[in-house]
Amino acid sequence: xxxxxxxxxxxxxxxxxxxxxxxxxxxxxxxxxxxxxxxxxxxxxxxxxxxxxxxxxxxxxxxxxxxxxxxxxxxxxxxxxxxxxxxxxxxxxxxxxxxxxxxxxxxxxxxxxxxxxxxxxxxxxxxxxxxxxxxxxxxxxxxxxxxxxxxxxxxxxxxxxxxxxxxxxxxxxxxxxxxxxxxxxxxxxxxxxxxxxxxxxxxxxxxxxxxxxxxxxxxxxxxxxxxxxxxxxxxxxxxxxxxx
Length: 244
Description:
Blueprint: E1 3-15, E2 18-29, E3 33-37, H1 44-51, E4 59-64, E5 79-81, H2 93-104, H3 109-122, H4 138-149, E6 156-160, H5 168-185, E7 188-193, H6 196-202, E8 205-210, E9 215-220, H7 222-225, H8 231-238
Parallel strand pairs: 3-7, 3-8, 5-6, 6-7
Antiparallel strand pairs: 1-2, 1-4, 8-9
């Protein structure tokens, strides 16, 4: 297996006096769905922002395909879906997806339109290209955001809480879509979530971060961690309140 993401001794937070997580080390292998798990406000989204180069870490190193991610004027190495989708409301669905292609390629308009339709077809929404994001349901907006993340054919996706705010049936459908795309496109996926349904359904390996301990509490397969001897880990994976 080849590590597409390699993190060593990472510290994240807002300042040296406001550290969320420190000494975090882990690797994401090619083709796997890797979960970054934790309770609300544990630092999951902050960690993802550091991984994709939006916020500098307080310490440590991040390598994606051997390079340090930097948010600059270079073509992105990966696709990103943010927690609320972050679609541009003033653009159509198709224009949202086309933006990356227009920015980073010299493809003609007809080719871009064909790619946009192909990406929407992947997520089951080809008929929505000319719609406004505001007219779509929450689950549909999440699918469009995933399609946009796939616009440049990345081999790595970062997805921040893709099933949050959705009803249980729609959340399961999003999980199935992610698993299907990972398998059919050969993607590595870094999935930020606290949803155990998603974790048990599609995550291959994961880390559990804890703000109180300011560290990675555990790394491994979800069902193995559910049987951890560390009560803090077992409580998260089983949602129990065992006595200490």
